[in-house]
Predict the 3D structure of the following.
Amino acid sequence: MQPDAAILLAVNETISAPLFAGSLFLGMLLVLELGRRIGIRRLRRNGTSGGSGPVEGAIFALFGLLVAFTFSGAASRFDMRRGLVADEANDIGTAYLRLDLLSAADRSDLRQMFREYLDSRLEVYRRMPDLEAAFAELNRSAGLQQNIWTRGVSATRNAEAHPNAAMLLLPALNAMFDITTTRTMAARSHPPLVIYWLLFLLGLGCALLAGHAMAGMKTRNWFHAAGFAAFVSVVVFVIVDLEYPRMGLINLGAYDQVLVDLRDSMK
């Protein structure tokens, strides 16, 4: 029932979207110029830059396919994580309502514990991207889970509780705790880093081919070169930012409002 705090996002498994996209942009500009110079040298030597349209087209198609798959995967995982926020709110809300099956004294104590628990759950994600602080708060949530479970089991055995209190409340508590593990695992679910390095290298490779194809131009066309590098880098930035939605501009924080609203209703 308790989430394993060790499955929180590890520092070495995260990618900084601005750093990754910025490095790709600068690298593509440099490789574009390198490709252009290689093409000019071959043009002077052979009278032609020797480009191969089918080969270049295949490599650009491969790059486009990789971008499409990584974007689609990042978007679907973002939607999944967003949906899990609502699932946790529903699970906590259901368990909170079922506290009415307990005696007045037990109900009052557990409601206060629920408020503390929900505050802790919200704090886990508010502290992102400070992973160390989020890790500490996740451990605190796990401790509160244990306290709620122990108190809940004891309360269902009270003679004043509803006869079916244990059958209705305990599964709801279990679901409320299980969703935390699901959310933590979802936050850590990413493609292998090699996928992003392959995306980076293919981007540089396409820039090299594009620069080589520009060798026939009399002057450097920095507008097209910078535009090509910028558009590719922006797309890659969005992909990485979607993949780590607690770390950058694209953030799940706005969707936590459903949990905030639930907390406000726990008067």
